[in-house]
Design the sequence.
């Protein structure tokens, strides 16, 4: 899973990137045309893996991972109704979700892009930038369709006209400031939308980068954000990026001590992962044995045979059945042998719908 991070200059988006990846990227504003995105991989925290490892004693533990990509500010700057274009557009199009960072902190030494600090205004501006980018993509496609219609056969014309109508409807919504994710579109529009990779169709996380002095008001700030922004495809969070970045560089014991002292709550990475999984409809199933204990990320509703394919296509092709036990049961009984005795280890077929925390052994004939 890849999540693209973007924001206005001086919003602290690279600080947020460092906080969630425990990285050390330069936090000074980088906006030259040759600047490259910061890329970092964060391991998804999962206490269940450590517990399972005490049962299986594996050689290694493998966590699920999230890739975060922090794009530089466009040379022309965001917030000027130009949208996101070029290489950075391509980077964000490849991401499964986007993380918008909006400045909510005061710091005289870090000049603000605007005359005043207003995270709600900036977040709304950046959402408009996504829609401007989408409009540009759709307008280019409409031009190509118009050219193709001149020489197309009737069957092809019908398909092109259908696509043209869909694009017209999407554009109308965008021009009325309705992101694609909130537009009521026909089910058969999904393949076309996937080809376009429109930015406003992607799940969005809005993060207010707050002052350390505002940490105790985090819940109030987030409730206000929910009332303003949140929907089934938008998640919100308020984080003190600078503090989270500093805490993320500490060893776990010291970090927890400081969090307790400052009442800073759970780590920013944990919060971002939870929001991301919820927005994208993701869960984890687990495998454990002598070689490794591992978390595998899948979409909710995925069947056992589909989940088997996440491990290897051969396992999916030769699927016989899945031996499944809920993590809570295995943690309680402490062994597969005891699980069999207590009848909490089940055999499931291809159509079994996987649940978060299922510990699975796939049997196959390949």
Sequence:
């Amino acid at each position: 899973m890849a999540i693209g991070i973007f924001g206005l200059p001086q919003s602290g988006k690279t600080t947020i990137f460092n906080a969630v990846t425990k990285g050390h990227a330069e936090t000074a504003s980088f906006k030259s045309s040759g600047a490259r995105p910061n890329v970092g991989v964060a391991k998804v925290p999962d206490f269940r893996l450590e517990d399972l490892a005490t049962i299986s004693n594996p050689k290694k533990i493998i966590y699920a991972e999230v890739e975060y990509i922090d794009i530089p500010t466009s040379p022309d700057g965001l917030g000027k109704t130009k949208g996101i274009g070029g290489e950075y557009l391509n980077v964000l199009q490849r991401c499964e979700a986007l993380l918008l960072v909006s400045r909510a902190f005061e710091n005289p030494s870090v000049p603000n892009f605007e005359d005043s600090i207003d995270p709600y205004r900036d977040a709304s501006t950046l959402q408009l930038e996504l829609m401007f980018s989408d409009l540009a993509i759709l307008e280019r496609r409409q031009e190509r369709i118009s050219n193709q219609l001149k020489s197309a056969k009737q069957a092809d014309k019908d398909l092109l006209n259908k696509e043209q109508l869909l694009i017209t409807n999407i554009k109308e919504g965008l021009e009325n400031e309705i992101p694609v994710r909130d537009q009521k579109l026909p089910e058969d529009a999904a393949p076309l939308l996937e080809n376009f990779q429109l930015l406003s169709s992607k799940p969005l996380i809005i993060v207010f980068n707050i002052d350390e002095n505002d940490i105790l008001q985090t819940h109030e700030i987030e409730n206000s954000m929910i009332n303003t922004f949140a929907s089934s495809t938008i998640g919100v969070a308020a984080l003190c990026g600078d503090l989270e970045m500093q805490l993320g560089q500490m060893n776990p014991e010291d970090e927890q001590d400081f969090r307790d002292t400052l009442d800073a709550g759970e780590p920013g990475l944990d919060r971002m992962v939870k929001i991301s999984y919820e927005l994208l409809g993701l869960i984890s199933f687990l495998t454990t044995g002598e070689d490794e204990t591992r978390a595998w990320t899948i979409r909710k509703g995925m069947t056992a045979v589909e989940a088997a394919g996440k491990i290897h296509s051969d396992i999916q092709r030769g699927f016989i059945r899945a031996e499944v036990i809920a993590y809570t049961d295995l943690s309680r009984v402490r062994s597969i042998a005891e699980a069999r005795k207590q009848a909490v280890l089940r055999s499931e077929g291809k159509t079994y719908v996987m649940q978060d925390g299922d510990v699975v052994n796939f049997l196959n004939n390949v």
About this structure: DSSP finds 14 helices and twelve strands in the chain. The first strand starts at residue 2 and ends at 7. The first helix runs from residue 13 to 21.
